Amino acid sequence: MISRRQFAATLAAAAASLAAATARADTYPDRPITMIVPFGPGGGVSINARALAPYLEKQLGQTIIIDNREGAGGIIGHTMGAFARPDGYTLTMVSPGITAAPWLVPNVRFTPDDYTYIGQVTFVPNMVVVNADSPWQGVKDLVAAMKADPGKIATGGISGWPSSTVAQALFLKAADVTAKVVPGFKGGADMISAVLGKHIDFGFVNLNEAMPLYEAHRIRILAVSAPARAAALPDVPTFREQGIDVTTGVWRSLAAPKGTPQPIIDRLSAALKAALADPALKQDFDKVELSVDYLDAEETRKRVLAEYQAFGRLFTELHMNVRKS
Questions:
Q1: Exposure string (b/e) for 75-90, b if CB count within 10 Å is 16 or more?
Q2: What is the 8-class DSSP label of residue 295?
Q3: Which residue, 304, 312, 309, is CA-closest to 117?
Q4: Distances in Å between the alpha carbon of 305 and those of 99, 120, 309, 311, 312?
Q5: pLDDT score at 184
Q6: How far is CA 291 from CA 69, 187, 246, 302, in A?
Q7: Element (H, E) at 57
């Protein structure tokens, strides 16, 4: 049984910890903040982070340093972000890799529970792209080619299983086709470069990565993985319209390591909400084909954890789950 002295000491320690956290929050932030981007420059997550950063700086009064920590399809950066010092000075722009990779890649150290969520920033649909001079005009053409030559039509593989790779796996299963998957891609920027260079025949990327090259008529978008056509691509049909049920997309949210003091999370959440409400940010987001799809901290947490559990059930059903729990 705990003694009165031990109980008093425990209460005193808790009070001291709370006081220290409150004091830190009162002066937070008093130095630059690092935002980890788990993918390379030029990819959709990096584009999003760099468009957001000036508006967070305006709200917080400190510099935001974008730190691209690419590798293993986002696993390296997401791991660094999850286990950084929980003091509010290392944030991560997280995306669906944190809900998919723990089920699909052996020995991943993190799960979504290792983060504290600040808020959702945006949601972007995935899409399948080919070179502009490809003979395929739609998904049915691509599927027919893959059925005629199983295992020969090439695409890329991103090891950390971001949402674009999940969409690709669901497409291959739904269409009942087999592709030659070339491993080693770091992210969407790599993937789309390989499509341009004709090193692979098709690739799954997100809207931000595809739009500049689509507008330059260098790639063709065969389908969008959303329930309805994207506002930016009114002439591009969805997968569902072409008989294949693939409706995944990539959300991007701001998160801090688990254990970050709540007053600091509250400060960051308020700053994010205000940044995303800035009309100038909306204009800058429009320039890079981004939408504002804000969710508060609690709604973001619920959405991320629900997707994590849904992916666990899905990948178990597909016999792809390496976690089993």
A1: bbbbbbbbebebbbbb
A2: B
A3: 304
A4: 8, 13, 6, 10, 11
A5: 87
A6: 24, 21, 21, 21
A7: helix 44-60
Q: How far apart are CA 85 and CA 104, in angstroms?
A: 27
Does residue 108 sit in helix, strand or coil? Answer: coil
Instruction: Give CA–CA dist 141/155, Å, rounded.
Output: 15
Burial 35-59 (b: 16+ CB within 10 A, else e): bbbbbbebbbbbbbbbbbbebbbeb
Output the pLDDT for position 245.
Answer: 87
- Give yes or no for a cis peptide into 106 (omega within 30° of 0): no
**What is the three-class DSSP state of 201?**
coil
Non-local (6+) Cβ contacts of 325 within 8 A are none
Cβ–Cβ under 8 Å, residues 186 and 45? no
Residue 2 is predicted with a pLDDT of 54
CA distances from 184 to 73, 181, 188 (A): 9, 10, 12
3-state secondary structure of 197: coil
DSSP 8-state symbol, 238: B
Identify the pLDDT of residue 11.
59
- Taken in order of first residue, the domains within the chain and their CATH numbers are 22-124+250-317 (3.40.190.150), 127-242 (3.40.190.10)
Question: Is the CA virtual torsion 296, 298, 303, 304 positive or negative?
Answer: positive
Contact status, residue 158 vs residue 183, Cβ threshold 8 Å: no
68: tokens are 């691209």
Q: How high is the pLDDT of residue 49?
A: 97
Whole-structure pTM over 0.85, yes or no?
Answer: no
Q: Please give the distance of CA 22 from its chain centroid, rounded to a whole number.
A: 31
Along the chain (325 residues), what's the average pLDDT of each consecutive run of 10 residues? 57 51 75 96 90 98 97 92 98 93 92 98 92 96 96 88 83 93 88 95 91 95 90 92 88 97 98 98 91 94 92 84 74
